[in-house]
Amino acid sequence: MLAIRLDKELERELDLLVKNRGSNRSAVVREAIIRYLEDDEDLQLAKKSLSDMKSSKPLQQVRKELGLDN
Question: What is the tens place of the pLDDT at every residue in 8-29?
Answer without folding.
Answer: 999 999 999 999 999 999 999 9
